[in-house]
Design brief:
Helix content: 40-55%
CATH topology of the largest domain: D-Maltodextrin-Binding Protein, domain 2
CATH superfamily of the largest domain: Bordetella uptake gene, domain 1
Largest sheet: 10 strands, mixed
Radius of gyration: 24 Å
CATH class of the largest domain: Alpha Beta
Strand content: 15-25%
Shape: globular
Structural class: alpha/beta
Length: 338
């Protein structure tokens, strides 16, 4: 009797383990099979902006590296419009099989849902982050010839004294540079009129022409104006946790006493929600390898941006943190994108 009871007791846990293995094995096998032989055809990389821009250029460069590492072509498909929503929605609505990925950046992944209620996708539930590619810390820029201000202290004092008579430019309402300007104003306790432009190039040209008093932009866009002799622009501060290697003489906002102004324009690679984890991991590994390629690294860091890389989870956490941060800033300052 004791022997029989002992056998029944030991059999029950063993049977349970066997049952669990049988139940979970198909899922595990599916996850493994998803990456086996992947990719066996071309991959489409959607860029939610027009050809010729920085996102398009980086997508083509990264796509070439993915193709080299994984052995299949990567075809770039530009779907611009709707502040990036058209292309990002196309990524979200694609089959989650690893054969459609795309560029995901600040606006479409964080603030568009707040500014544009009709946004047809939810960044948190309809997309799978793969990896962040790079980030470009934001610079506060003034006209080197027409502005008397050579440091942030004198500039902020003048901004406060102007009482709203000064203006700043950005490359579009609701974008990271517009939001940077609004957060800067509330941080220093001053006001300036926002002038949105249709493109960053127009905005920088108007800053050089003296049509706006200051502006916010990344180093790669403004470097030509900063490094020319004599300079056309002057950077008073950088919104980063440390100085940029490409602009070592430009202090951070934190160094100058303004905390909470670490801001960058960033972008990475995303896929439709439901893309198998094994495929996400395979793409993540290939792209991280590409980011360490000396030629690719120079393309990113040479003009002043910072290589990101890392895990899919790290990118997901970053998107969530940025969404929460800027939603609070938008509501607290009643910022409008029109």
């Amino acid at each position: 009797m004791q022997s029989s009871t002992f056998n029944r007791r030991t059999f029950a846990p063993a049977a349970l383990v066997t049952a669990l293995v049988l139940l979970t094995s198909p899922i595990q096998v599916f996850a493994q099979d998803a990456a086996t032989g992947y990719p066996n055809k071309s991959i489409t990389m959607i860029v939610p902006y027009a050809a010729g821009g920085s996102s398009d250029a980086r997508a083509r460069q990264i796509g070439q590296k993915i193709s080299e590492y994984l052995g299949q072509p990567v075809v770039v498909d530009n779907k611009s419009g709707g502040s990036g929503n058209i292309g990002t929605n196309a990524i979200a609505k694609a089959a989650p099989d690893g054969y459609t990925i795309g560029i995901g950046n600040f606006g479409p992944l964080t603030v568009n849902k707040t500014f544009i209620p009709s946004t047809p996708y939810n960044p948190r539930t309809d997309l799978t982050p793969i990896v962040m590619l790079e980030k470009g810390p934001v610079l506060l820029l003034v006209n080197a010839e027409k502005s008397p201000h050579k440091d942030l202290k004198s500039f902020v004092a003048a901004l406060k004294e102007a009482k709203g008579k000064m203006s700043y430019g950005s490359s579009g309402a609701g974008g990271v540079y517009h939001l940077t300007g609004e957060l800067f104003k509330s941080t220093v306790g001053a006001f300036a009129v926002h002038i949105p432009y249709r493109s960053g190039g127009q905005m920088l040209n108007d800053l050089v022409a003296g049509q706006v008093d200051f502006a916010f932009d990344m180093a790669p866009s403004s470097m030509g104006f900063l490094k020319v002799n004599p300079p056309k622009m002057r950077a008073l501060a950088v919104a980063n946790d440390k100085r940029l290697a490409s602009l070592p003489d430009v202090p951070t906002f934190a160094e100058l006493g303004y905390k909470g102004l670490e801001i960058s324009n960033w972008f990475g690679i995303v896929a439709p929600k439901g893309t198998p984890e094994a495929i996400v991991n395979k793409l993540n590994a290939a792209i991280n390898k590409a980011l360490q390629d000396p030629e690719m690294a120079q393309r990113i860091t040479g003009p002043g941006n910072i290589i990101a890389g890392g895990s899919a989870k790290a990118f997901s956490d970053h998107i969530n943190a940025e969404t929460e941060r800027w939603t609070k800033v938008i509501k607290a300052n009643d910022i409008k994108a029109d």
